[in-house]
Amino acid sequence: MDHAVHTFISKHQMIQPKQTLLVAVSGGPDSVALLHFLCTMKEKLSLRLIALSVDHQLRGEESQADLRFVENMCEEWGVEFVGTSVDVLSYKKDKGTGTQEAARELRYAFFEEVMYAYEADALVMGHHGDDQAETILMQLMRSARPEAVQGMPATRRFACGKIIRPFLMVSKNEIASYLQDHALKVRMDPSNEDTEYTRNAIRQHLLPFMKGSNPQFHKHMQVWSERAREERSYINEQAQKVLETVHFSSDVEKFVQLSKQTFKTFPLALQRTAFHLILNYLYVNQNEDISYLHEEMFMNLLNDEKPNASLDFPEGLKIIRAYDEITFSFPGEQDWKEYSYILEIGEDLQLPDESEIRADWFSGDGTEDAYTYLCDSHHVKLPLVVRTRQEGDRMHLRGMNGSKKVKDIFIDQKIPARLRPTWPIVTDQAGKILWVVGLKKGGERTSLSSGPWLRLHYKNKADT
Questions:
Q1: Which pLDDT score, from 0 to 100, does residue 122 have?
Q2: What pLDDT sits at residue 365?
Q3: Partners of 456 in beta bridges
Q4: Does the keyword Protein transport belong to this entry (predicted)?
Q5: Which of 197, 375, 407, 412 sits between 20 and 30 A of 291, alpha carbons compared?
Q6: Where on the phi/psi map is residue 412: left (φ > 0), alpha (ψ -120 to 50), or beta?
Q7: CA angle, 139 as apex, 136 and 141 as ends, to 5°?
């Protein structure tokens, strides 16, 4: 076992001379063996070892005895000791989590606090090869996403340093032999035998079968884990090319926009990876309620030929496709929906989205663009009104006979459905639609007109 662990430590560059190492020690077989093993390295590498132990207060006097056992062992071995007690049951009740999750969160919060206090280089954990195999089997049971089935990393960043797991290539039986060879005493936690916990059920029923078929199963799982992480890292790196085509908001309210056609030009594996990286950005970390079913829902939306579609994801995330544009956002309640305002000549009117529209009289030759409107003043009944679309709205378009529904104008111009309800429309007092701002114009404009022209100019939020 010694050779295997030293080789693993060297391969992953886990420990360097003169480092401060925190060691998580419960008093059980794995952590006792770990602390003893590190003690054999302590003098040669000038290591500072600090054992950390947590009483979760779940087994009364028995768990307090575990804490005292670790403290006495550290005193005997000349190792610094920091212990604490945490109230798992109260925390569980407040947070609404399970017992195991609550215990883990409190335990790691303590580890992080001590890590910063001692400016430690690493937190050393006693997870071994059988633990790794159990973890991967649990992940396979819970998720079909490759990125969610990678096992425990040999090293990962944590607080001001990293977490390291030197025992991942050795089995539970090898650790038991190590303890016996060195006559080491340990404490046993009876909750580890409770098969109500999924991990314990896998440990007692599934893993023995796997290891009976292949005694090296734990090593295979560790090698698989390392390769899976390396390959996933490469795919994530390649997926950055996809994300370069995606717009990520820099506002307080997070949203993401992408082009459906551009997104689909990339290989399917990168599309899927980019999708989950987008979710990581929006959720901060991948939401546990997201499964491969959500991924399939998104891929179906991506390939659907309907011009408009939407998906509802956990925590209120909404994915909306409007023609080529796909938007991920957490839409809140709008402070405004429909509106109708009088637009006075010579004044600027600010709309709810902070865009502005101005009306004035204009004499001389004028040119129009998408955001400037000119109209023969003799054919307009004042005052003007700026409002949102109403059911049945129709307008007479310049240069065309007959009228057209405003709804059809939005469709023809491929305006996203989410923008249509608040799109500004200008009418005169009689209700005649003069301008669907930025899209289509009505009203008369003849070169033979005498007198001033009515001129409207629209500025969006970015230009105001």
A1: 96
A2: 66
A3: 359, 373
A4: no
A5: 197
A6: alpha
A7: 115
Residues, the chain: 464
Structural domains of the chain sorted by starting position, each given as residue range(s) with its CATH number in brackets: 1-213 (3.40.50.620), 238-329 (3.30.465.60), 340-463 (3.50.40.10)
- Give the Cα separation of 225 and 446 in Å (integer): 75
Q: Residue 448: its pLDDT value, please?
A: 47
Kindly report, residue by residue over 81-103, the tens digit of the pLDDT: 999 999 999 998 888 888 888 99
As averages over each run of 10 residues, the pLDDT of the chain (464 residues) reads 93 96 95 96 95 90 91 95 93 85 92 95 95 90 77 93 96 94 88 66 86 90 91 93 89 80 95 92 73 89 87 89 88 67 92 89 78 82 92 87 88 80 91 92 66 84 57
Q: Is the sign of the CA dihedral 191, 192, 198, 204 positive or negative?
A: negative
Burial of 78 (0-12, 13-18, 19+ CB in 10 A): exposed
Dig out the tokens for 80 from the structure: 């610094």
The one-letter amino acid at 173: N
C-alpha to C-alpha distance for 88 and 145, rounded to whole angstroms: 31
Other C-beta atoms within 10 Å of 256: how many? 18
pTM over 0.70: no
Beta-bridge partner residues of 189: none
Residue 26 annotated as binding? yes
Let me know: does 322 contact 418? Beta carbons within 8 Å.
yes
The string of DSSP codes covering 240-302 is HHHHTTSEE--SSS-EEEEEHHHHTTS-HHHHHHHHHHHHHHHHSS--TT--HHHHHHHHHHH
Integer angstrom CA distances of residue 414 from 162, 169, 321, 379: 51, 58, 11, 30
d(CA 31, CA 117): 22
Q: Is 30 annotated as a binding residue?
A: yes
- Whole-angstrom distance, CA of residue 293 vs CA of residue 50: 45
To the nearest 10°, report the CA torsion of 205, 207, 208, 212: 140
d(C-alpha 129, C-alpha 135), whole Å: 10
- Nearest one of 433, 418, 345, 419 to 387, comparing CA atoms: 433
φ/ψ of 11, rounded to 5, equals: -60, -40
Q: Are 316 and 330 in contact (CB under 8 A)?
A: yes
Q: Is 403 annotated as a binding residue?
A: no
Distance, in Å, from the CA atom of 454 to the CA atom of 438, rounded to the nearest integer, reads 17
Q: Is 416 marked within a binding site?
A: no
Distance CA 32, CA 187 (A): 9
